[in-house]
């Protein structure tokens, strides 16, 4: 009898912890859904607003670069003022910005609204991850939860292209932004009902100079990658941009090294597992975003496929990610991050190499299999990278830990879009397959880099500091 009574509270607590995970994962679904829906709708947006590939790059990267710039600051704000409070603010801003995107009359307004979406999204992903980490103190349970967390992105990847294609076919491209409204509304209700408030154990001062310099550096670098080929790398504007990026980066490093409570503790990057996780996140999302953009432009422009057909072609990639992400979490819990990272690198490289021979009339089965391989690689990669990065910081800094990982992801997304877009910008439909070849080689190179990351992350288990149960 005594044993039965003692066992009941943990079971109840476990149900509540996993409910918190489900609610917070909805935010990851929202962010991922928005990315993939917009991606498959880019050609329709270009036709509707009269813009080319470079303008479409800004539609994507205005969101990702602002998101990357503010993630760490949002994590620190959440640790200081309350994670649930910041999370709810993020939902409200994201929802309002989505409505602004839906009614945008011009490219400039759409890009500005996408940047506002990035501000809202910066308060969602890392803050929700911090809430999950705080709710699941056991390392093995946390590893499984992170696997589920990663699989949610795969689900959003699966739902986004197909849902976006169907919405565009039925209601036009603006509907891909209207769809966010019911998701935001549901998330707000669930957060109010189930998510407890939590804070970091120690609040930190806000690092406004560091935040400003980081934003300038990231925005300038991505802007150069998008506009550099058009301006010419030796033009006065490009030279000025490179100078500004170098000065902002140097200033950021100097400021962070001198502050007692920096926005980003650069000393963490001296630890091989943490540095490997950050670089691996950049590589994974560079490959993913480049693959999604190149696939969308190739199928719709070069092959004449509809948005819905393009979304269906992307489905194997999403299914591979969805199936393998929770499996990856289990592997991390049992064997550490190295085995799933090796699998991730091998599958991603194989998929990229398979598409490097893409031609105007490449057989659809080859395309589908290659996209499936990339999706499997992504599914295996996310959990070990996230687990290693979060494990590299004390629990009290969970918000910052999640933010650094998410910053690396979004930086990779922005770079992938900018580089892939630059490769095919101005290319006629007949030449798209050939112009995209270096992009697919980039995807393969990112996969090979994950093999290096796997070797560096072998010590992740032994170098991770012990976690308290608080």
Automatic annotation (TrEMBL):
Signal peptide: none
Family, as annotated: Belongs to the major facilitator superfamily. EmrB family.
InterPro entries associated with the record: EmrB-like, MFS, MFS_dom, MFS_trans_sf, Sugar_transporter_CS
Record flagged with keyword Transport: yes
Ranges of residues in domain Major facilitator superfamily (MFS) profile: 20-462
Keyword Cell membrane (UniProt): yes
Keywords, in A-Z order: Antibiotic resistance, Cell membrane, Membrane, Transmembrane, Transmembrane helix, Transport
NCBIfam families given in the database record: efflux_EmrB
Recorded topology in the membrane: Multi-pass membrane protein
Main subcellular location: membrane
Protein name: MFS transporter
Pfam family, one: MFS_1
Membrane-spanning intervals of the chain: 20-46, 58-78, 90-113, 119-136, 148-171, 177-196, 208-226, 232-253, 274-299, 305-329, 341-360, 366-390, 411-427, 439-457
Source organism of this protein record: Kitasatospora aburaviensis
Domain of life: Bacteria
Subcellular location: Cell membrane
């Amino acid at each position: 009898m005594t044993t039965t009574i003692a066992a009941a509270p943990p079971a109840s607590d476990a149900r509540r912890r996993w409910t918190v995970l489900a609610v917070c994962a909805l935010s990851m679904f929202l962010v991922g859904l928005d990315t993939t829906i917009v991606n498959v709708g880019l050609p329709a947006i270009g036709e509707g607003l009269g813009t080319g590939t470079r303008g479409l790059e800004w539609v994507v990267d205005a969101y990702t670069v602002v998101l990357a710039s503010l993630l760490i600051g949002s994590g620190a704000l959440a640790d200081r003022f309350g994670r649930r409070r910041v999370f709810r603010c993020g939902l409200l801003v994201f929802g309002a910005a989505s409505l602004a995107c839906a009614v945008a009359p011009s490219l400039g307004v759409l890009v500005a609204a996408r940047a506002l979406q990035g501000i809202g999204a910066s308060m969602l992903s890392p803050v929700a991850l911090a809430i999950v980490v705080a709710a699941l103190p056991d390392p093995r349970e946390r590893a499984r939860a992170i696997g589920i967390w990663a699989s949610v992105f795969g689900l959003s990847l699966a739902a986004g292209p197909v849902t976006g294609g169907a919405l565009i076919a039925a209601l036009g491209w603006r509907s891909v932004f209207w769809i966010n409204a019911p998701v935001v509304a549901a998330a707000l209700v669930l957060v109010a009902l189930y998510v407890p408030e939590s804070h970091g154990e120690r609040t930190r001062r806000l690092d406004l100079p560091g935040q400003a310099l980081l934003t300038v550096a990231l925005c300038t670098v991505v802007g150069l990658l998008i506009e550099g080929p058009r301006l010419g790398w030796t033009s006065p504007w490009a030279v000025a941009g490179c100078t500004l990026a170098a000065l902002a980066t140097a200033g950021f490093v100097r400021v962070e090294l001198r502050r007692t409570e920096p926005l980003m503790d650069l000393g963490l990057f001296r630890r091989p597992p943490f540095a490997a996780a950050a670089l691996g996140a950049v590589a994974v999302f560079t490959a993913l975003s480049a693959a999604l953009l190149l696939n969308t432009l190739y199928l719709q422009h070069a092959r004449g496929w509809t948005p819905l057909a393009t979304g269906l072609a992307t489905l194997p990639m999403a299914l591979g990610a969805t199936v393998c992400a929770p499996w990856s979490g289990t592997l991390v819990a049992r064997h550490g991050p190295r085995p799933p990272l090796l699998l991730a690198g091998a599958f991603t490289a194989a998929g990229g190499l398979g598409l490097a021979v893409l031609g105007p009339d490449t057989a659809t089965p080859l395309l589908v299999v290659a996209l499936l391989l990339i999706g499997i690689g992504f599914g295996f990669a996310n959990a070990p990278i996230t687990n290693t990065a979060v494990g590299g910081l004390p629990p009290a800094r969970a918000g910052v830990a999640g933010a650094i990982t998410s910053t690396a992801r979004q930086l990779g997304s922005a770079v992938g879009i900018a580089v892939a877009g630059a490769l095919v910008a101005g290319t006629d439909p007949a030449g798209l397959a050939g112009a995209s070849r270096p992009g697919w080689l980039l995807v393969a190179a990112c996969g090979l880099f994950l093999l290096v990351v796997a070797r560096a992350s072998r010590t992740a288990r032994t170098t991770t500091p012990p976690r308290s149960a608080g």
